[in-house]
Design a protein that fits this description.
There is one protein chain. With 240 residues, this protein is of the alpha+beta class. It has helices spanning 2-11, 13-30, 58-73, 104-118, 124-129, 160-176, 200-205, 210-220, 235-239; strands at residues 45-52, 81-86, 91-98, 132-136. Helix 3 (58-73) crosses helix 4 (104-118).
Length: 240
């Protein structure tokens, strides 16, 4: 029977071509209808904990932040293993992996509960900036590149700092609100900042320390509501 079918297709090339085209069309129609959610997920579920200890090196951040967090996260229920990384600018990243059948939301809650216990032992600077616990995929799913056009002189219209700030303020949050997006990271991020250089001789002449300068800058860097003209005074203002 198989031989007769083969002879039929050999003797009728038009029929063979039509059958091939039909098979290709059916395959193209079925591709978007495949139940992808039922395919086995091989990668482990992952929860990432990030913190920053400003102004410290890797050794100090590891002793005061990474080790404290690891000690508490180590007892997380159903955690398979964890890996940590501490950079020389005070950044701490801890990746906690769970079995593939584990629910991501449940895994995040379990890790976050242990992180909350460890926050009491962390330095005040770390708690002020916050410890972030979020679920994410172990691999990068998609990457976008942003660049500026060049003018007639061959120079870029916008510099790297402007582009990084534009992406952070107008694009970052929009992409993060898309359903299914777990985490975003701007590689090579540049931010506007103020750098202050201290003159040791001038500080010694005025009997000041570096901490005195930091405290003075912190006192002046306060954002308050200015109010508006014609606003009625509050009860506290009337008593004063």
């Amino acid at each position: 029977m198989l031989l007769s079918i083969a002879n039929t297709f050999i003797k009728r090339p038009v029929l063979t071509t039509v059958c091939t085209v039909v098979i290709l069309l059916l395959g193209a129609i079925c591709i978007p209808l495949l139940p992808l959610d039922k395919l086995p997920e091989m990668a482990l579920k992952q929860v990432t904990v990030t913190a920053n200890y400003l102004g410290t090196d890797a050794k100090t951040a590891e002793e005061n932040v990474t080790t404290v967090l690891e000690r508490q996260i180590n007892g997380t229920e159903r955690a398979v293993y964890m890996a940590s990384q501490t950079t020389n600018n005070g950044d701490t990243t801890i990746n906690v992996s769970f079995p593939t059948e584990m629910d991501r939301n449940t895994a995040q809650v379990l890790v976050q509960n242990n992180v909350a216990v460890a926050e009491a032992e962390l330095p005040e600077e770390v708690n002020r900036t916050g410890v972030v616990t979020q679920k994410q995929s172990p691999t990068i799913t998609l990457a976008y590149a942003f660049y500026a056009e060049k003018n007639a002189q061959g120079n870029y219209i916008y510099d790297n700092v402007f582009i990084s700030n534009y992406v952070d303020r107008l694009i970052f949050d929009e992409i993060k609100r898309i359903e299914g997006v777990g985490n975003l990271r701007i590689i090579g991020e540049r931010r506007y900042a103020m750098r202050i250089w201290l003159n040791p001789d001038a500080l010694a002449a005025r009997n000041l320390s570096a901490q005195d300068v930091i405290d003075a800058i912190s006192e002046q860097n306060i954002q308050v509501g200015a109010g508006r003209i014609g606003q009625q005074p509050t009860k506290t203002e009337q008593e004063l």
